[in-house]
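Q: Convert this sequence to structure tokens.
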Amino acid sequence: MKHYISRVIVACMLVIMLVASGCGSGSTTQSDKGNVDSKEPNATQTTENGEVDSDDIADVSDSDKTDLEDNDENDGLIKIGFAQVGHESDWRTASSASAQDVFSQVNGYELLFADSDNNADEQLSVVRDFIEEKVDYLVIDPILPTGWDVVLEEAKVAGIPVFIIDRTIECDEDLYVAWYGSDFEKEGKAAAEWLKKYIEAKEKSDESLRIVTITGNKGSSAQKGRSKGFTKIAEKQANWELLGEKDGEFTEQGGKKAMEAFLKSYDDIDVVVCQNDNEAWGAMEALDAENISYGVNGKVIIISFDAVRDGLIDVMAGRINADFECNPLAAPYIAEAIQLMEAGGTIENKTNYIDESCFQSDNLVKSIEVDGEKIKMITVNDEVLANRVY
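A:
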């Protein structure tokens, strides 16, 4: 509406100026004649005696009315500002696609989406832009866990509720409504518990196990949680040796570089833990280059996280031994929470974990137990892939 009013004011000022011009001289320059003769839409004209052509006033109003109707298309929609980490992995792409699908106009939303390209400063900037845009809700997948206090305080002052997804943040909990995402430490524990039972099923528990880990971005909550969880279980195993960690940045290229570095440093590696599927693909490329076999029938056990569809294809093919899901579909959970708040309800839980599964290539391990919870291991087949939405 503000844009409509401003255009009408400008149009009226233009009319007054042209009327004044007509009264003062009674003549028109050649360039002005060109404008008059063209009868372009929105061009207000005067007659030779300085009177305003009423038809042209109608033209201005009709044009502005059309613009107003366009603006009205978003009336009643819930405006969402979503600050995404970037596009570094297939998992991230699935997360973004889910948000764009859920927060659509058909579903009653107007989505302002920003890809921060893994730039923490840029992400803070786009969140401030969303605040200035007066969005109704903010959804943030934070690149880093720290540095959020000031901008979230600004959102609070502006009266904009904030939801955090996927990665966690370290700030006053009063500055956001709730967090929705994965239990990263539990994922790490699950991977280690599976490896323990897998080795037992292979009757190799008494043999030494040399393990390297390709981590995600150092300092991210996913990296810290998965590393912490896996290490907690691994350190209790007498024959497991954790050789080291290298940052693969959650990318295929990063995974390849990290694996190449490990192969230069260690002659004998039994297990490669990759903290997402993209890193696993890079690691496999590096192993292929050195003619080192891996997977179900290979020398090196490959463990991955995320369990995107392409990752599960490799699990079914036996190239990845096990893959632990990190569900990227947080948007439906956020939409449900927003609808509850719109209806006057409140979100009771600050921390909300999303449902996830654990996958393997063969059926040697039926189930694992993590923190007292029994978790079924799903053997990937055509039916599993057919039902996969990401």
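The longest strand covers residues 240-247.
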